[in-house]
Design a protein that fits this description.
single chain, alpha+beta, four-stranded mixed β-sheet, 6 helices
């Protein structure tokens, strides 16, 4: 029943790419590696924010809570805000809620986000990404940023 270890490093259709199911990236004879949902959601959130044209992640209420949290001294930006994931033993799926910058092509933006999130999650975790679903909740206008800041009016007086 002893199988050769070199046989487990078989390549697939793309030259040099290892077959993840056979490579044992997360399971081996020495044990298993489990990756928490929060790890995958943070990776996906960072990868989505890297794309030009993404203003923010999260729906209205999520962004409002995040803005309050960021005003607390010593707090950090929640990189998994606006990201929901399902993580299995070999696969992951992600749902992202975004705010796009005005003037950005939403279909092109969605394609770039999917490509970057899929590549980052697969590279860093070894999990196969089966889906990256994107919901565009809003379009960011530069003028709205100035109008929505209540402190701006007080500073002008």
């Amino acid at each position: 029943m002893a199988q050769s270890k070199s046989a487990s490093l078989s390549t697939t259709g793309t030259e040099g790419q290892l077959d993840r199911a056979d490579s044992g990236a997360l399971a081996s004879e020495y044990g298993r590696t489990s990756i928490a949902d929060t790890v995958v959601s943070k990776i996906a959130g960072i990868a989505a924010r890297e794309i030009s044209g993404v203003h923010d992640l999260g729906g209205g209420a999520t962004r409002a809570a995040g803005a309050i949290r960021e005003r607390i001294p010593g707090s950090r930006t929640n990189m998994s805000q606006g990201v929901a994931v399902e993580v299995g033993e070999r696969q992951a799926a992600a749902d992202l809620d975004i705010v796009a910058e005005y003037g950005t092509s939403i279909p092109d933006l969605a394609t770039a986000i999917r490509r970057n999130v899929k590549a980052a999650v697969e590279r860093m975790t070894g999990l196969e990404v089966t889906e990256v679903n994107i919901t565009v909740h809003d379009v960011f206008l530069e003028d709205e940023a100035h109008d929505s800041d209540p402190d701006a009016a007080r500073r002008v007086e």
